[in-house]
Q: What sequence folds into this?
């Protein structure tokens, strides 16, 4: 019992720390793209502003940079888990890779928001919507395939973990990631 409780705490810490780290890496993607385009970059806690010459393509590249980082994290997490041998119970590196792969859930959450509202809770236009508009396609053409990819990554990651040992650890991980993100937003607001 003590082993299970200590494992839950470990998973909670991984999630709580990785949630804000994922945001920072996502925003870092936008900042790097802005710097490479010669723009003046200002990174905020949960957003990045870049002053660049106006242009539809440059806006699309900037908007796509954050989700590209998310995709790299998700696929690297999935690939890392597939490369590692399955162990019961999963070790710390397995949960870090799992947290990385869970960034793919962002796209599942974006389907109703991206298709119905096109804006996040703060009123900003979603990266995926801006990217789609920049290349001249409807938002659903980008948002729906990303959601399918995100769902597939998540299912593969869950199935990598041993049957019978999924519900509680994943619940702890996802709730602690959300708590980490909320704490990050509260501290940096």
A:
């Amino acid at each position: 019992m003590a082993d299970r409780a200590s494992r839950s705490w470990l998973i909670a810490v991984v999630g709580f720390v990785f949630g804000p780290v994922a945001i920072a890496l996502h925003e870092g993607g936008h900042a790097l793209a802005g710097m490479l385009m010669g723009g003046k970059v200002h990174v905020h806690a949960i957003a990045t502003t870049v002053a660049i010459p106006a242009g539809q393509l440059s806006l699309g590249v900037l908007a796509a940079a954050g989700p590209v980082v998310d995709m790299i994290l998700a696929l690297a997490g999935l690939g890392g888990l597939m490369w590692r041998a399955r162990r019961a119970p999963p070790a710390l590196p397995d949960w870090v890779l799992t947290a990385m792969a869970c960034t793919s859930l962002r796209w599942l959450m974006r389907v109703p928001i991206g298709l119905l509202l096109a804006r996040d809770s703060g009123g900003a236009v979603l990266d995926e919507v801006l990217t789609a508009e920049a290349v001249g396609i409807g938002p659903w053409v980008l948002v729906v395939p990303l959601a399918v990819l995100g769902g597939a990554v998540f299912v593969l990651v869950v199935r990598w973990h041993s049957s019978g040992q999924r519900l509680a650890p994943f619940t702890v991980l996802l709730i602690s990631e959300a708590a980490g993100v909320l704490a990050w937003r509260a501290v940096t607001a």
The radius of gyration is 17 Å. Helices lie at 2-36, 56-83, 92-101, 105-117, 127-134, 139-160, 167-188.
